[in-house]
Amino acid sequence: MQQINISSKTRLLSLFGYPARHSLSPFIQNIFLKDNNIDAVYLTFEFPGDMLLNAFNGARDMGIYGLNITMPYKEKIYQMADDKDASSRITGSVNTIRFDLIENGIKAKGFNTDIDGFTVSLKEAGQDLENKEYLIIGAGGAARSAVFAFLSKKAKKVYIYNRTRENAEKIKQLFFGKERKKIETIENFELIIKKKINFDIICNCTPLGMNTQNMMDSIPIPESLDLKDKIVFETIYEPVETKLVKKAKDEGARVIDGLDMLINQAAASFNIWFDIVPGTKNIKKMLLKNLRY
Length: 293
Ligand code: NAP
Fold this sequence. Notes:
Layout: E1 11-17, H1 25-35, E2 40-46, H2 52-61, E3 66-69, H3 74-80, E4 83-84, H4 86-91, E5 96-102, E6 105-111, H5 114-124, E7 133-137, H6 141-152, E8 157-161, H7 165-173, H8 177-181, E9 183-186, H9 190-193, E10 201-204, E11 231-234, H10 243-250, E12 254-256, H11 258-274, H12 283-290
Parallel strand pairs: 1-2, 1-3, 4-6, 7-8, 7-10, 8-9, 10-11, 11-12
Antiparallel strand pairs: 3-5, 5-6
Helix pairs in contact: 1-11, 5-6, 5-11
């Protein structure tokens, strides 16, 4: 019989989302816990939005050690957190909660580690992030994190293309001064194709290419956009090889995929909870074995 090492001292970390049962975070976080001999388990909780406030307060009151938050609750939990770090404040979104013991209770502090997912993955791929020109497709939560991540690493320019340009403009308005001046929203791909706009790194922050809602055959850029010598950052990880990733590989671009980002944002959350940078070396290989796509 397999031994279960759970005792009354075992701590609990949780993922909140809806849906959340597809998430790979429990797989990754439980490996980090085991590798670092931490007596804790990480479990998924999937429930509808009208239960979120009760669940959040319950987690705090029952002494849950920390939370990850996934779609569609990152913005709602931002509102519920008692305190937020700079990255979550500017993006208005929280994907990690640390419950800190304070004199008169427990304080929930929010962080956004999607930002680390972008910067660490690029760094791991040997990319110097400074002074680069970025093209971000999409203007939702992931795009906001990407813009913050790249500007904080001294981007030269950040272009944002989104089907609803207004939403791209809203991201621009989150920044001020020199940083805002570096952001340009673009109306269509014609300008890029005609090389009126140049970029080093392109980042897909839309669900186009994902295995849901008949999006798997979609690609967020025109087929005619040449990706040779570019760096392509795909945030989608199911499938790992999206249509965009395939095109990028075929055209000789360097690819950073959604699993790289997922693993690095998870490692940053773990570091927030335990002040330990977990090893991530073999995790991608293990995940690839378990993925359906
Ligand atoms: P979101 O807040 O819902 O934003 C989605 C964005 O995509 C919006 O700008 C939306 O445009 C655009 N979009 C949606 N459907 C589209 C379509 N059919 N055609 C063109 N544009 C479309 O989502 P998010 O949280 O930013 O997530 C975006 C992607 O990032 C998802 O694929 C998610 O899985 C991925 N992600 C990955 C990780 C990771 O760790 N690998 C972490 C976070 C997110 P409108 O503004 O016009 O609505």
